[in-house]
Write a structure and sequence with these properties.
The chain is mainly alpha-helical and 161 residues long. 76% of the residues lie in helices and 0% in strands.
């Protein structure tokens, strides 16, 4: 009993630390649950925003087609168009960097004169049917053209620039 009387501050501190540790387990668990709920909410918001602003291309590097972009590409036969178009333009991109080829493709498809009336109609129809802007469909053409150039020039699309 003398031990307890002499060391009561240390014993009290040990019990206090034990109690705080026991209680903090509940706090940590609660915080982990809150973080999980927050992640779910952020995913819902991302999904909602994506539905408001559908995109045909990804925002990562290198730019790729999203599921919507792949659908649009099939609808307008973008890959076939790129394979027919690339041979006449390949000299314009030979020796250029990945980025410069990509920029060339974006600029090329923006010009009104590069699309036949039939392709322009497909582009406009796809934009309308998918609830997107015409420039988003043109980005699909540009990415398909870029990928065709990379293939013909034997350049790795995923290589660091």
């Amino acid at each position: 009993m003398d031990f307890i009387k002499e060391n009561w501050p240390i014993i009290s501190l040990i019990f206090l630390i034990a109690g705080v540790t026991w209680k903090s387990r509940g706090w940590v668990s609660s915080i982990e649950n809150d973080i999980g709920d927050l992640k779910k909410s952020v995913r819902k918001i991302e999904g909602f925003l994506k539905s408001l602003f559908p995109s045909t291309t990804s925002t990562n590097s290198p730019i790729n087609l999203t599921d919507l972009g792949k659908k649009v590409s099939q609808e307008i036969q973008a890959s076939e168009w790129a394979k027919q178009t690339a041979p006449g333009l390949i000299v314009q991109v030979e020796g250029k960097s990945h980025y410069d080829i990509q920029e060339y493709c974006f600029e090329h498809v923006k010009r009104e004169s590069v699309l036949t009336e039939e392709m322009d109609e497909r582009v406009r129809s796809s934009a309308y049917n998918n609830g997107i802007e015409k420039w988003q469909v043109l980005r699909v053409l540009a990415i398909e053209l870029r990928d065709t150039f990379f293939e013909q020039l034997k350049m790795d699309k995923n290589a660091d620039y």
